[in-house]
Amino acid sequence: MLRIGVDSTKLADSRGARGEDLLARAAELGLEGVFFRSILELSPTLDRGELEAAMAAARELGQRVEAGAGKVNPFATPEAPGIRALGGGDYLRAMRMMIEAAGSVGITELWSATANYQFRLRGLSAFDRFRTDVEWGEQLAATERFLHRLAPILRDSGVHLNLETHEEITTFELVRLVESVGPDVLGITLDTANVLVRGEDPTAAARRAAPYVRSTHIRDAALFFRPDGIARILQPVGEGVIDWALLLEPLRDHDLMLSIEGIVEDTRAEMTLQIYDRRWQDGHPDLDLAEAFEVVRLTSSYEARVAAGDAPGWQELHAPVGDGESLDFILRSARALRDLLARPASARPIEKAGTLA
Questions:
Q1: What confidence tens digit (pLDDT) does each residue in 96-109 have?
Q2: Sequence-ordered list of residues with C-beta below 8 angstroms from that of 200, at least 6 positions apart, any chain
Q3: Are 264 and 326 in contact (CB under 8 A)?
Q4: Could you tell me which residue ranges the Xylose isomerase-like TIM barrel domain spans (predicted)?
Q5: Residues 6+ apart with CB under 8 A from 101
Q6: To the nearest 10°, the Cα dihedral for 35, 198, 226, 319?
Q7: For the chain, N or C: smaller number of CB within 10 Å?
């Protein structure tokens, strides 16, 4: 069963709100659940009473609850000092505390990610994948070792840790991590717009990740050719380049929340695929040429829509995010998803010949 939820951090007026209030707000908007980026949003101290109160509110409102824990790349964890402080200086202990607290109140799907994106920087240096002090392969190896240490904790708690298709990692790499550590404790959070940043066709990426997808971040994207590559800018579902009927097809039989991750007041999360840079090219050993060409085709197609007046262009998408636009992004996405999910099986797409897995 697919249900439609929302990312708490992108829900309008969410800053500082209690978990119960966000659940009530989601229900008021006709949504079916909330993905809390951190379980600490429900209780900063992991107080059992506070967590149980939030879950009781969710049950009363018919809301699904998913939450997040810390990052799992040891080279990225220094950027989360609050989590280390939670564990009294012991990051592994803090992760154990969050996992066990989640499991104790019935939160069985926990988000995580492998690294960070530095919005204040430009170019390859914004991506942890291209750090020069530690190569990406070393970061993946350290992440895998740490996940193996978390595996028995997750198993004992009955919790899945779902790694996001974040800006720095590919679905190929995530699938390998899941299969190494074990799908009984590890899954994938499919972010539909992020896969584009790694040069992946969203439809092919969804099929590749589908056996292990247990949570999602749902948003569309506009693509533009730029002097340094291709720029990705977030758009509501159905208004960007993604073929949603095809993307959702391998997920139709999942018990899954489609968590709409919108925009905030100061950004539409523009990122650039530095496809002309040899370092970018060499840094993607799994890159499928047909998928890369598909991203180029999607970019050309979007720019044609702009030229025809059928889609917002570069200048429009670089205007300040207006009052109410963050909420409107969520509501438009929810309407589009409801329409897609309401279509009968006979109206579902037949996979195009030649589409690569």
A1: 999 999 999 999 99
A2: 170, 171, 288, 291, 295
A3: yes
A4: 23-262
A5: 39, 43, 46, 48, 51
A6: 0
A7: C
- Cα 139–144–148 angle (5° rounding)? 150
> Which residues contact residue 345 at a Cβ distance below 8 angstroms, ignoring those fewer than 6 apart?
none
Q: Which of 69, 68, 62, 52 is nearest to 5 (CA)?
A: 62
User: pLDDT tens-digit profile of 331-354?
Assistant: 999 999 999 999 875 455 544 433
Euclidean distance between CA atoms 320 and 322, whole angstroms: 6
Work out the pLDDT band at 14, boundaries 50, 70, 90.
low
Instruction: Specify which residues 3 forms β-bridges with.
Output: 257
Inter-residue contact 263 to 9 (CB < 8 Å) = no
As a whole number of angstroms, the distance between CA 31 and CA 24 comes to 10
**Nearest Cα to Cα of residue 348 among 216, 260, 233, 253:** 253
Its CATH architecture, for the domain 2-220+240-264+321-342, is Alpha-Beta Barrel (3.20)
Confidence of residue 9 (pLDDT cuts 50, 70, 90): confident
DSSP E strand stretches across the chain: 2-7, 33-36, 64-68, 109-112, 160-164, 186-191, 213-217, 220-226, 229-235, 256-260, 271-273
- Residue 193 burial (CB < 10 Å; 0-12/13-18/19+)? buried
Burial class (CB in 10 A: 0-12, 13-18, 19+), 131: middle
Query: Is residue 11 within 8 Å of residue 37, measured between CB atoms?
Result: no
Where along the chain do its domains lie? 2-220+240-264+321-342
Cα(196)–Cα(340) distance, integer angstroms = 21
* Distance, CA of 52 to CA of 41 (rounded, Å): 13
